[in-house]
Every structure is written in C-alpha cells, then in structure tokens.
Give the backbone structure.
Amino acid sequence: MLSEAQLARIDIVLVSPRNPLNIGAAARAMANFGFTRLAVVAPYEPHWQEARSAIGAEQLLRNARECATLSKAVATCTLVIGTGTVTLRKPEQQVVSLPDLAPIVEKELAREGRIALVFGPEKHGLTRENLSYCHLLVEIPTDVHEPSMNLGQAVAVCLYELVTRVIPDADTVSAPAASQPGVEDPVALSGQLDILAEVVEQTMIAADYSPLTMLAASRHDLRLLLRRLRINPSDSRRILGLFRRILWRIQRANGAGPDRG
Amino acid sequence: MLSEAQLARIDIVLVSPRNPLNIGAAARAMANFGFTRLAVVAPYEPHWQEARSAIGAEQLLRNARECATLSKAVATCTLVIGTGTVTLRKPEQQVVSLPDLAPIVEKELAREGRIALVFGPEKHGLTRENLSYCHLLVEIPTDVHEPSMNLGQAVAVCLYELVTRVIPDADTVSAPAASQPGVEDPVALSGQLDILAEVVEQTMIAADYSPLTMLAASRHDLRLLLRRLRINPSDSRRILGLFRRILWRIQRANGAGPDRG
C-alpha cells in the first residue's frame, strides 16, 4: 500500500457528477483503498447534497472540497491526469494505458509533486475544455464493443491500480537519487500555469496576435502547450514576469498611440 | 487482452446477490472487460428478475445460468477461486493477494482448465460452506479500516486485474512446454470431486469411521482435502472405483453380518 503521506498528495476529482449513488460509490472505493482527498467540480447541487448527507456516507465525502471550476480544483497540482476512453476524438496530449501509469505517478511523488486524478460526468466524460487542464490522459483498457465504464467502478479500478502497482514510499526509497544530477526539477502548479496563460493571452490580444474570433481556440492550445513544456516554478515566474513587462509596454504604447500620432 | 477462447473458460459466479443494481454493475464490468459467462447461485428471485429484465441490461445477464447450489455452478471447473476479505476467520485454503493471481490463472488456462471466480452476497460474503468448494481464496488488498468493497466494484477490480496481467494466450505461447515432462497434469472437475466425496462419505459411515454427529464437519474437511490434493481426472476415477468397491464390501458385510453370527 502507498504511505499516508503519499496518499495525501493524490486528489480525486469528480467533474459534474450526477448520480448520488455513483458519488457514494466513488467515495467508498477511495475509503477502501485509503485515499482521503476528494474534490467535486460544479456538481448538480440537489444530488450532491443527497450523496453527502446519505446515511453511512464516507467521512471523506463530508470533507470533500467543492469547486466551481476544474481549474480551481487542480490549482495546486503538478500533474493532472484525466481519465476516459479515447474513441471519438484525437487526444491532444500523451495517452497512457492504466497498467502503465504507476512509474509516472512514482516519479511525480518522488519529486514531491501533487497529483490529481480527474473523472468526468457519467454520460459523456470529460469535455475538451476539461482535458486541456490535463498533462496526461489515462485509459482503462476496456472491450471495444463496451468501452464505457460506470463511474464508481472506473474509480475503483484506477485506485486499485495505483495502490497495488506504485512502489510504496518510492519517494523515500529514491531520496538519495533526488540530489543527484539528472533528476527532474519540480514543475509549476496547475494554478501558476493558469495565471501565466492569462497574462500571455492578454499580451496576445494587446499585440493583435490573433483575431478575436480565434481567442477560444488559442486559449485552449496555449493551455495544452504550457502543460507540455513541464515548466519548473522559477521559470514559470520568470516567463510570467517577462510577459507582464511586454503586456505593460504594449498597453502603454497603445495608450500612448494618440500622443505620438 | 485475453483471447476470446481464454475468456470463454472463465466463469463469473455470484452467490445469492441481493441488490439488482449490484447485479447489473457486475454484468456491466464483465461486458467492459470482455467476459461473457455469468452464473448466479440461489438469487433472491424478485430482484434477480428485475436486474435481468432491466432496460439496457447486458446480453450476458439475459444469458446467465441460474443454479440452485454453488456445487452445481462450478461442477465443470478445475480451479474455483473464492473472493473476499480474510478478517474474521482463519482461511482453510491458500490465500493469494489479487495482484499475485495472474500466474495461477495463466497456468490453469495453459492446461486447458476451466476457472470460476466466485463472489459472495453483499452483506456477509461467502460462507464457510461456500468456501469449502474453493481451491483458493483471492483477497483484494484494501484498507484495514474499510476492507469491505461494493460487489460491483469488487467484480470490476478483479476482472481488470485478470485482463491486464494474465499473459494473453499464455496457453498458445506455452503449448510446446505442455508436452515436456514436469508440466502439471490436468486436474479433476469440481463436480467429479463432489461425486468422489459422496462415495467416500458413504464409506466412512458404513465403516463407522466417525460418529454421525461429526458428519457435517467431516464432509467439510473432506471437500477441502480433495481440493488440496489437485487430483487428476484419471486418478479421481481410480479412487472413486476403489471407494465404491470398499463401500460395496462393507455394505455386503454389514448385510451378511447376521448370517455369520
């Protein structure tokens, strides 16, 4: 089993869950495998309250964080893993089969990262917008004729895989190696990347980089790009400082435009 | 993924399931992972019919076998695997943690065996009587504070483990090895062992081997003993023949007793 310290660095995030039974089942699987940190994003309120106040509801369900957006739910995470079946759309980031996930999680825990495992709503799964906050997609290898799993069962299978295949206390075991060269730096938090993306986007607008009609598409691509880069926190701050400076200059120039004309 | 031929040699058996939602969830997990053979033992009829006729019910649920006893459900199997959490009682047979199950299943498929994976009722799991039909117990490694899993989730986790960790077509791959010495013989079917146990028990009674008050306990121990031995089919027939002969002699002697007296 993973250590308590490791389990405390893995968040389970349910995006807009509908069925109170599924919410309860997800919480029960978490309790079965020793996970404690649950966040729900924009739940359907009546069902969420029903699940939360159900007799026999898990303590972790009552302690769950409720967030308006996925961006907020994963803001302190360094590795956001989306779950789902890649059938309809071409994925925009790396896809890993669940049995191959453990080494990636071990590495992230070893460098003191914080991980979110994100599950979409029952009917249609994570949206393209949701997925743009994910560094990685994980796919449960299901039958092509019946690929879509029940939410509670998908959570159980993913948590079972992590608990049984991630090497316990890999962070302690690999601690001496962490000081050696070649070990990867920590990466920026998801929330830092969101702030950076915001400033870059304002800069793009100020610089007339792309037409306003393309704004949503650019924002989406930018989010994915920043996650692909695996920027470390200090570089993230550096780039943010640079863009703030550029933005200020452009805005000043734009404002000063009439003076020069 | 396992081949269709391999999946067709693994039966999923639900003993006295109560909740129609759990029955549906178990069937859905089977469909997700490509399993097709479901048997239910002594289900609570109204709930079983409800699950079976539910809109969107899996085809495999409608094709499920309904058996009066576990003995009948697993009669053609050579390896019966019980599931559960070993907390309250001392197990009477080998216990394997789920992540270690795959090599055992591979070996059984390689020698053309038929496997049953047996799940108990929601409330209390498999009874001691149920367990005496099992060659092996498998345990899902859950948290000690919350060990008991939901039925549908337990089925999903077990099937995920088999599908992802059993080497696909291990029977084809290891076919050349099968003719080499040292590879284990096929083993007797569960139903053959039941017939043998019946005759041995009659012989014990006829021979006044143990008091009638001990009969239930002896029967239980005998069932477990025969499964521990992993008798091959021809030896099973040989032993059966021997006991039938002994039984006939004792009965004749008992019947002839007064003549000699």
Chain B has two domains: 4-178, 190-260. The first strand of chain B starts at residue 10 and ends at 15.
